[in-house]
Specification:
0% strand; 3 helices; flat
Length: 53
C-alpha cells in the first residue's frame, strides 16, 4: 500500500510524504479488503502489481 503514497501525495497537493501519512489510518482487519478492492483499479499503475506475474 505504501507504494501508492506518492500518487496520493501528488493528488492531494502535499509537499511531503509526512503530510499524506497523517491521513492513512488502516485497521489490520480491513487491510486485505482494501487491497482486494483497489488492485483492479490500480493494477497497471504500479509495476509488479499483477498477481499473475
Amino acid at each position: 500500500m505504501y507504494v501508492s503514497i506518492p500518487y496520493l501525495e501528488e493528488y492531494m497537493g502535499h509537499r511531503n510524504i509526512n503530510c499524506t501519512e497523517k491521513y492513512l489510518r488502516l485497521a489490520a482487519d480491513s487491510y486485505d479488503r482494501i487491497i482486494d478492492a483497489l488492485t483492479p483499479l490500480y493494477n497497471d499503475m504500479i509495476k509488479g502489481g499483477d498477481a499473475d506475474e
